[in-house]
C-alpha cells in the first residue's frame, strides 16, 4: 500500500481518520476544482491527513495565496511538515477551534476532508458554525463524504448546497459545494 502509515493511523483511530486510505487523485481534483488560480485566496483546510488535498491546493492556487490547515493526528502533522511551502501553516489543532486562529469573514474557501458522519453532532455543528463565521460572504465550503447523511445539516448552515459524485475513489464519494450567498 502506497501510504501504509495512513492505513496504520486508520486502524489506531478509525473514528477520527474516517477512511482506510488516502483520497484518490480523481476525488482530490474534483474537490479542489472550484478554486480559481488567477487571484490570491485565503484558504482553510480541515483534516489534511497525509496532505494529498493540501498538495493539490498548493499546486493549483495563486502564488500569493495562504492556506491554514487544522489536523488533530500528530503523525499526520509530522508528515505535513515535509511540505515546504511558505504559503502553508499547519496547526496541530481541532477544526472546532477555527475561530481561535482565523478572523471572521476573511476566508475564500474552507476545504474539508473531515469524516463528518463520525464526528459527534455538537462538535460538527461547532465546526460548521465556525466555518460559516470565517467565510467571506462570497466564500464557499467544499467537503467530500462517502454518504449523504449530512446533507440536511449542511443546508442548515449554507444557503446553497450542491452535490456531485465520483466513482473513482474507494469508496465512491460525494462532493459538496456550499455557499452563503443565494446567487
Ligand atoms: C478522511 S481523512 C482525510 C485525509 C486526507 N485529506 C484525504 O483526503 O485523504 C480525515 C482527516 O481528518 C482529521 N480529523 C478528524 N477530526 C478532526 C478535527 N476535529 N479537527 C481536525 N482534523 C480532524 C483526521 O485525523 C484525518 O487526518
UniProtKB/TrEMBL annotation:
GO molecular function: methyltransferase activity
Domain Methyltransferase, residue spans: 43-139
Keywords: Methyltransferase, Transferase
InterPro entries reported in the protein's UniProt record: Methyltransf_25 (IPR041698), SAM-dependent_MTases_sf (IPR029063)
One record GO biological process: methylation
Domain of life: Bacteria
Protein name as catalogued: Methyltransferase domain-containing protein
Species, as recorded: Neolewinella aurantiaca
UniProt lineage: Bacteria, Pseudomonadati, Bacteroidota, Saprospiria, Saprospirales
Amino acid at each position: 500500500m502506497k501510504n501504509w502509515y495512513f492505513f496504520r493511523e486508520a486502524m489506531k483511530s478509525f473514528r477520527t481518520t474516517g477512511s482506510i486510505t488516502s483520497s484518490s487523485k480523481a476525488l482530490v481534483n474534483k474537490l479542489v476544482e472550484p478554486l480559481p488560480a488567477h487571484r490570491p485566496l485565503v484558504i482553510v483546510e480541515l483534516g489534511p491527513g497525509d496532505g494529498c488535498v493540501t498538495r493539490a491546493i498548493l499546486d493549483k492556487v495563486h502564488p500569493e495565496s495562504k492556506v491554514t490547515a487544522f489536523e488533530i493526528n500528530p503523525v499526520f502533522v509530522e508528515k505535513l511538515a515535509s511540505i515546504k511551502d511558505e504559503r502553508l501553516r499547519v496547526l496541530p489543532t481541532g477544526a472546532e477551534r477555527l475561530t481561535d486562529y482565523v478572523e471572521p469573514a476573511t476566508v475564500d474557501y474552507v476545504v474539508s476532508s473531515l469524516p463528518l458522519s463520525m464526528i459527534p453532532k455538537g462538535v460538527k455543528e461547532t465546526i460548521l458554525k465556525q466555518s460559516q463565521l470565517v467565510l467571506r460572504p462570497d466564500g464557499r465550503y467544499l467537503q467530500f463524504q462517502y454518504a449523504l447523511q449530512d446533507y440536511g445539516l449542511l443546508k442548515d448552515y449554507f444557503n446553497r448546497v450542491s452535490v456531485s459524485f465520483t466513482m473513482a475513489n474507494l469508496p465512491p464519494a460525494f462532493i459538496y459545494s456550499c455557499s452563503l450567498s443565494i446567487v
